[in-house]
Design brief:
Elements (H helix, E strand, L loop, with lengths): L3 H4 E4 L3 H10 L1 E6 L5 H12 L3 E9 L3 E6 L2 E6 L3 E8 L12
Antiparallel strand pairs: 1-2, 2-6, 3-6, 4-5
Length: 100
């Protein structure tokens, strides 16, 4: 079984994710694509010492990107990744900046 640091890659710090945090006590993380909800829940509880109520996962598809270079027109894709939305118990918080 992979370690917690391998399962949880990094938090998603976007405007949409911060609105979820303020209103619904939910946090978003990029996670290992092979990790399941049980492994994600255990990793979050061990890393941050909070009680996880629910875990929702989604696979975010990569965007198609195009650019024009000296070599001509280059097209490609950004990589896909798995995102987990974690709902934690009311009254508890996760401070991302305390571990820096």
């Amino acid at each position: 079984m992979p370690s917690n640091m391998e399962i949880i890659k990094k938090p998603v710090l976007t405007e949409k994710a911060s609105l979820l945090t303020e209103k619904l006590n939910r946090y978003a993380f990029k996670v290992d694509p092979k990790a399941n909800k049980i492994q994600i829940k255990q990793a979050i509880e061990q890393m941050f010492g909070v009680t996880v109520v629910a875990v929702n996962t989604m696979v975010v598809a990569g965007k198609a990107k195009n650019r024009y270079t000296k070599a001509g027109f280059v097209s490609g894709r950004t990589p896909k990744y798995k995102k987990a939305i974690i709902t934690i118990k009311d009254g508890e918080t996760i401070d991302f900046y305390s571990t820096i």
